[in-house]
Amino acid sequence: MPIYPSVTIRPVTVQRTVTFRGVRRHDRIREGEWSQAENLTSALSPMLSVRKQRARAGAYGGTVLALAASDPVAALFRAENDPDCVILQYGERTERFSCPEGQDPGGVVRMGAVLVLPGLNACVNTVTGERAALGAAFTPADTDITAAGMRHPYVLKLCPCDAEGNELRVFELTTAAEGETYEADPAQYSIAAGECYAVGSQRRIRRYDPASRETWRTMPHFLRVEAAGIDAVGFRAGDFVDVAGLPVAWTAGVWVDDVAHDAVDPMMTHNRDGSFDDDPNGLREIAAVGAGYVVLRDVFYTRRVTADCTAAQGVTVRRAVPEMDFVVEAQNRLWGCRYGESDGRLVNELYASALGDPTAWHRFSGLSTASWAASVGSEGPFTGAAVLHGQPVFFKENCVHRIYPSALGAHRVTEQRIAGVAPGCGGSLVPFEGGLSYVSRAGVMRWSGGSSQLLSENLGTLRPVRAAAGVWGRRLWLSLTEPEGGTLWVYDAAHETWFTESKPPEGLPTCYLACGDQLLAACGGAVWDLLGAEGEPEEAVHFSCTSGLVGYAVTEQKYVSRLVLRMSLPRGSRMDVWLEYDSDGVWRHAGHLRGQGTMSFLLPVRPRRCDNFRLRLTGEGDARLYSIVKHLTKGSDLP
User: Fold this and answer.
1) CA-wise closest residue to 281 among 238, 224, 242, 309
2) pTM value?
3) Is there a cis peptide before residue 639, judged by omega within 30 degrees of 0?
4) CA gap 354, 71 in Å, rounded
5) How far apart are the C-alpha atoms of 211 and 49, rounded to whole Å?
6) Number of C-alpha atoms within 13 angstroms, CB side, residue 100?
């Protein structure tokens, strides 16, 4: 009877992985996680699938700097053929702004139908096409505006006036008793209708109007500043302006009450020294603007003063906008912050424009609609700004300042110590999952007003240099630049997974805009729709993923004798399997599949005996991975 050799059947253990997660950049990772995964997504979780194709939505004639939500989408870009020019394009309209090549033009803030460009001192109404400057400044030129009857030529004139800007002749009396005498019998002193007297010590101007029921009337205090072109720079009634250099005393080139001798009533003492007059310089409110003049409110002034070109050279009237690091819109105001030198002084301040007016930053009228400013005591520069639940928040690297707007104008500022926005990562600060997401030194954070939450634990230690982010639905796209280079990360909050995506051909996106069913990303001079809703689709998507080390958790001399991958590959797709043994750095081809329809496939892979190995999948097209099955066979201690 023949004797046949016996074959020992080695017991086989089967391990199935049917739920796939994202990237985990740690030495040891869990089943279903990847040390690297590009152009894959958890959108069809628990399956692993390839992301949707993107679409090239448009291109601009220069590097896109900012995208703004308006109808249509507005883009700010630096002209390629003119590096000193920045262009704002929305729909069929374009606006050009001068901006030196090395200067940062800032971003675009939307305030209703108005696009505000703080860095370019401009705003544009997208409905009417009207363009205006945020700030305005005037300095008298050498244009002679000398009036008839004046003995000296002048380019600047100051005089008391009424609310409409009509000039007043004001005579100064020494005592209040003299005023009572004139008012009792004005005809005795030949006082004409419209003339005024002032008792300087009482700071009161009284005007004679015999045609009115109130013969003598106390006049509000207004000062008319007249100069050629002062009405053409953009000043408006209600503006608060910084006034400097207006004459307050006798100086060279300045004349007081320069009228013909016969025009002065010899019975009255005409005010020439202005000892009780206000200094017109400082922060003043414009009450009216007329042809060649502006009217300043609440300035007690009794003289008529003229100045020639030399004396008027140092005069400036300026509607100033503070220099700001970041600007946001909330509750129909613009809010900004500044740390550093401004107008020759070190500031650490927060600002708010007047209600509904992006040009008014110094309208401190005491009303609830007025402008607002406050100093803060935290250290370091501001690194980002956003709006949380309708409240402006301003981040530094180690804290956040939150403003609570008040309907009465008594806005309140708080300070909270948290891991703030990292320097250079202000573009990563976006609303996400009921809070704000941003990149800090500690990683990618989410903050909803209380303690901050770390989202990037799977990514290990980050060393951010620059970052920008965009949100659509429950997914966050993050352009993160580290010293080693830039990466486009995608975080899915529904499954708490991170994947990477390949950069568009023009480079890493620098800014994002969610618009309807599109997520637009600016890359160089092109704009891509990362969701592929509109535009020219890209070619087939190339994907890859790499597992962690397989075999470290296997005990009792077991080894992986077989891998079985179950997947679907539509027609036109392909996938290759690669293996690396014992971390030797060499990837060996272990299998290939080409899509032949929508059916699923089984791909068996037989790794060689080793201590550990890694698995890599590469390919293109709409591949989907359903499961990976490992067959563990018990072996001996010998290799």
Assistant:
1) 242
2) 0.88
3) no
4) 25
5) 89
6) 2
Euclidean distance between CA atoms 117 and 474, whole angstroms: 30
Residue 226: strand, helix, or coil? strand
* The two three-digit tokens of residue 345, written as one number: 């002084």
First vs last Cα of the chain: how many Å apart?
Answer: 36
CB 327 within 8 A of CB 336: yes
Cα four-point dihedral sign 505, 506, 511, 512: negative
pLDDT digits (tens, 9 = 90+) for 115-135: 999 999 999 999 998 999 999
Contact 606, 613 (CB under 8 A): no
What's the rounded Cα separation, in Å, for the pair 91 and 98?
21
Q: Which two tokens stand for residue 396?
A: 């530094």
Number of H helices, E strands in the chain: 2, 53
Q: How far apart are CA 216 and CA 205, in angstroms?
A: 10
Q: Return all residues near 29 (Cβ < 8 A) that are at least 6 apart.
A: 35, 548
Q: What is the 3-state secondary structure (H, E, C) of 522-590?
A: EECCEEEECCCCCCEECCCCEEEEECCCECCCCCCCEEEEEEEEEEECCCCCEEEEEEEECCCCCCEEE
Backbone angles phi, psi at 625, to 5 degrees: -105, 120
pLDDT of residue 428: 97
Structure tokens at 177: 């008793």
Contact indicator for 78, 85 with CB cutoff of 8 Å: yes
Question: Which amino acid, residue 621?
Answer: G
For residue 598, the model assigns a pLDDT of 65
Give exposure, 308-342, as e/b (b: 16+ Cβ within 10 Å).
bbebbbebbbbbbbbebbbbbbbeebbbbbbbeee
Phi and psi dihedrals of 302, rounded to 5?
A: -120, -5
pLDDT at residue 263 in the model: 45
Output phi, psi for 120, to 5 deg. Answer: -110, 5
DSSP 450: S
3-state secondary structure of 122: strand
Q: What is the rounded CA–CA span in Å between residue 356 and residue 133?
A: 15
pLDDT of residue 169: 84
pLDDT of residue 273: 57
Q: Which residue has the tokens 């049917």?
A: 18
Characterize the bridge pairing of strands 196-199 and 170-173: parallel
- CA gap 575, 54 in Å, rounded: 20
Q: Please list the ranges in the chain whose pLDDT falls under 70.
A: 1-2, 4-10, 249-250, 258-274, 551-558, 597-599, 635-639
**Whole-number Å distance between alpha carbons of 216 and 605:** 106
Residue 510 · residue 64 · CB < 8 Å? yes
DSSP classification of residue 312: H
Q: Phi, psi (5° rounding) for residue 507?
A: 120, -175
Residue 264: predicted pLDDT: 43
